[in-house]
Amino acid sequence: MKFLVLNGPNLNLLGVREPGIYGSVDYDGMVRITRQECAKLGIETGFYQSNHEGDLVDAIQAARGRFDGIVINPGAYTHTSIAILDALKAVAIPAAEVHISDVTKREAFRQVSYAGMACCVHVIGQGVAGYAIAARQLKEKIEQAE
Ligand code: DQA
After folding, report:
1. Confidence band, pLDDT 50/70/90 cuts, at residue 66
2. pLDDT mean over 100-121
3. How far is ligand 1, taken at its centre, from the CA of residue 101, in Å?
4. Which of 53, 100, 131, 141 is spaced 20 to 30 A from 123 at the CA atom?
């Protein structure tokens, strides 16, 4: 099984960016941890990060036929991007939403998740460990559906 782990704006600044909220592990560290944990579960991973909404839409479209699942943290586009929601629905690849912070306990503007509406797994507030947790839950969902 092969998953695309997709990260949106400012997640390249993990470790530097508001460490009190997002922790001290940087983007490369998150990639290492997620790749390692997923490998233990028999999940191969590809990673992509962009600060640009259209690039994320392109990456979702390009995942067709190449990935069995998408683990996505759309960053702030979570709360604004109908284009990312539509892309996830268009490709119909099983998807898991991840948020490093507990968005449910943050500002009112973070309480809507458009991308999450196309996801069958939601892992929120588990830090960077959330990516591998989401991948495990997504794998289980895919296997149950088979
Ligand atoms: C985030 C939460 C979003 O509200 C925020 O804009 C991010 C990161 C998270 O991982 O907690 O960029 O998706």
Report:
1. very high
2. 98
3. 7
4. 53
Best residue among 7, 73, 119 to mutate for probing ligand 1's pocket (most ligand atoms within 8 Å of CB) is: 73
Give the domains, in start order, of the chain with CATH numbers. Answer: 2-145 (3.40.50.9100)
In our burial notation (b when 16+ CB lie closer than 10 A, e otherwise), range 100-119 reads: bbebeeeeeebeebbbbebb
Q: Given the CA of residue 9, which atom of ligand 1 is nearest to it?
A: 12
Residue nearest atom 13 in ligand 1 by C-alpha distance: 75
Distance 137 CA to ligand 1 centre (A): 20
pLDDT at 121 over 90: yes
pLDDT at 60 over 90: yes
